[in-house]
Hints:
Elements: H1 2-10, H2 12-29, H3 50-56, E1 60-62, E2 68-70, H4 76-90, E3 97-100, H5 109-122, E4 125-128, H6 133-136, E5 145-148, E6 155-158, H7 165-170, H8 174-178, E7 186-189, H9 193-210, E8 220-223, H10 235-244, E9 248-253, H11 262-269, E10 274-277, H12 284-289, H13 294-308, H14 320-331, H15 338-344, H16 352-362, E11 370-372
Helix pairs in contact: 4-5, 9-15, 13-14, 13-15
Amino acid sequence: MATATDRLTGSNSIRKTIEEVLAAGAAQLLEMTGDAHADDIGFAADDGSVSAILRALQPTLILDSAGALPLAAHGSTAAGVLAAAEAVVSASAPDAIVLADDFGDDLDAASAEYLACLLRRNSGQVWLSTRHPDVVRAFPAEEMIRLTRSHGHRQAHQLAPTTDRKERAARRHLHPLLMPAMTARTVALLEGPHDLDGYTAVADRRLRRQGAAPPAAAGVRMVAPSNGDGGKDELPKLARLARDLGFHVRVVLDNDKPGADAALIADLTGVVEQVIQLPEHTSVERALTHGIDSARLRVALQRLVTDHGLIGITVDTIDDKSLEGKIIKVLKQKGGLHQPFVEALPTGPMPPLARKVLGTLCGPVTSTVLIEVELP
């Protein structure tokens, strides 16, 4: 290190700069003696001690053709992997108890899960706090504790061990649906992926075009059962699981068959904080189309026909009275065209019924559990 710093000091450009600085009055003011004042200037790491020199060094890593680069140049994930692996080594001591805060924040999904698995395997006991849903995959559901303070006081929520068939089936929703929402205060349960696509598209477009806050700004995460087309039958199971984990739970229901969901609503109102039901004879497709003027509907439908290769539809021959009904049928084609339809709408107000649903989700919960949305 001393040799390296001597070579630095002796280089022509560095020495010239030092001599100019000293000649500008620094040598006189510092009362430097001798004829070659520049010889008295050198460089050292920090305070010059060996420990300071070691602190000045940093590891390098060869990962690809770029060769040996400082660890910091590889990004935070590489450093995070090495730091977590170091913890795994330390945890191998007999009966070691490991406590780690914000575990996995600087790791990718696969690394977070694997290193958490190693810590759990090698430690006598391990406590990890995390905001990373993949870390939780390393543990059985009953070993997870979710901490909240949104219920008016601090609480810890933990699932009890179970051998019940229905309960075990319900817990299959844990990782695909609820863990990605683990840091949200509220989950809004929708009937299926079409509902999720539609309402998310409206919320995203309103945010981009108008700056309107989406449900996420109110701590609400919209989720939907992920088995095929979703289904209302899964909602009570998912709602109970979310409630047991300390989530505030809301539900949005279609109402295309008035009265058919009476038993479902009665079940849900005993579990969730709010059930939002669309007007009679209304599904999510109507919530995305009703209240939009026919000129904008025609443009959006024509864009769907062109972009998605819809056959047998001549937009100009559809009269205004039949236009909304036709689009409702079209939205169910091609695996669901809800999101493309919202994006295809020309500039203008977003569907008022969908806006009402989103506004209700963003608003406070009242003592009235069942909220029946009215047509605008």
